[in-house]
Design a protein that fits this description.
- With 292 residues, this protein is mainly α.
- It has helices at 14-17, 23-50, 80-84, 99-120, 127-148, 153-169, 179-208, 215-228, 230-255, 267-291.
Length: 292
C-alpha cells in the first residue's frame, strides 16, 4: 500500500541544485527560515494563551494580559522585542512569561533543523510543508496539554484539514502524482489510528469507570496521521505510550503517590514522538515497514 511509503526520496538532489553546499547560500536560507519559523512561533504563543480560554486568535489584536494595552507592531517582533523590552510590557512594565521567547526561538530552530534534515536526506521538498505544520501543531498542543490538560479542537481540526490539503496539493509526498489518491491516503492515515485510539478510550472507560484517555489525544494522533502518514502515527502512539509510562512511574516514585490515582498529560509525549519521527523517521520507517 502506497500510504505506507512515507518519506519518499526526491528524484533530483534539490539541496545541491539550489546551491546550499555553499556556506553563504545556506546561511542566508537558514536565517530566513529562522525568522519565518519564529514568526509562526509568535502566532503559536497567541494560540497557547487564548485557545484554552476560548478566545479568538484572529479578531482580537495582540494586547498585554495584565493592563490590556495594545501591543504595537514594533513591540511584537519575534525574539527581538522580548530582548529589547527585557520581557516586560512597555505600558505597565509587567513581566511577560519566558514562554514567549522560548517558543519563538524553538520554532525558529526546529524549522531550520527540519529544512536541513529534509535536504540532506533527499526528501521531496514538499515534505517541508507537512513537517512545519506538524511542528507548530505539536509544540502548541504539548504546551497547552501540559498546562491545562486539554488539546483544543481549535488546534486539532485545522491540523487535520491542513494535512489533507497538503496531500491534495503535494501528492508526491505520499508517493503518487494523483492528488485524490494522496488525499485518500491522508484520510486513512488519520482515521485508522484515530479509530483505534478512540476504541481504546471507550473500552478503557467502560472497564475502569473513569476516563483513561482524553478525546483531544485521539484527535491529536489522527491529525499526526493526516500530516505524516500511517507509519508515523503508529510510531508516535508506541513511542508516546512508552515514554509516558516511564515518566508516570518516575513521577509516582518521586512524589510517593499511588499509581492508581495518578495521571499525567499524554499530549507532550505524543508530541515528542511526532518530533522524533520528523527528525529520525528515516531510520524508524524500515522497522515499521518490516512489520506489515
Amino acid at each position: 500500500m502506497l500510504f505506507f511509503q512515507n518519506m519518499p526520496l526526491c528524484e533530483y538532489d534539490w539541496w545541491f541544485r539550489a546551491g546550499f553546499e555553499y556556506p553563504s547560500c545556506l546561511a542566508f536560507a537558514l536565517i530566513s527560515i529562522f525568522i519565518f519559523g519564529s514568526c509562526w512561533g509568535s502566532f503559536m504563543n497567541v494560540c497557547i494563551w487564548r485557545m484554552p480560554r476560548r478566545e479568538s486568535v484572529v479578531t482580537a489584536p495582540s494586547h498585554c494580559t495584565a493592563c490590556g494595552a495594545d501591543i504595537r507592531w514594533y513591540d511584537n517582533l519575534p525574539v527581538i522585542s522580548y530582548i529589547v523590552l527585557r520581557g516586560k510590557c512597555r505600558a505597565c512594565h509587567t513581566h511577560y512569561s519566558c514562554r514567549y521567547f522560548i517558543v519563538e526561538v524553538i520554532m525558529g530552530l526546529l524549522f531550520c533543523g527540519v529544512f536541513i534534515k529534509a535536504g540532506l536526506s533527499q526528501q521531496v521538498p514538499g515534505v517541508l510543508a507537512s513537517y512545519w505544520i506538524l511542528l507548530l501543531f505539536a509544540v502548541a498542543a504539548a504546551w497547552i496539554d501540559a498546562q491545562h490538560r486539554i488539546i483544543p479542537d481549535a488546534l486539532n481540526y485545522p491540523a487535520m484539514l491542513l494535512g489533507i490539503v497538503c496531500a491534495g496539493l503535494l501528492p508526491e509526498v505520499w508517493g503518487t502524482h494523483i492528488w485524490y489518491i494522496a488525499v485518500v491516503y491522508s484520510l486513512l492515515s488519520g482515521l485508522i489510528p484515530g479509530i483505534f485510539l478512540l476504541l481504546f478510550s471507550v473500552i478503557g472507560e467502560k472497564l475502569t469507570g473513569k476516563e483513561v484517555l482524553g478525546w483531544g489525544d485521539v484527535k491529536f494522533l489522527a491529525a499526526c496521521g493526516t500530516l505524516l502518514g500511517l507509519p508515523a502515527a503508529l510510531f508516535i502512539l508506541l513511542s508516546g505510550s512508552f515514554s509516558g509510562s516511564i515518566a508516570g512511574v518516575i513521577y509516582v516514585v518521586i512524589s510517593r503517590k499511588k499509581l492508581s490515582g495518578t495521571s499525567i498529560p499524554f499530549g507532550p509525549f505524543l508530541a515528542g514522538g511526532a518530533l522524533l519521527w520528523v527528525f529520525a523517521g528515516n531510520w524508524f520507517y524500515p522497522l515499521l515497514n518490516a512489520l506489515r
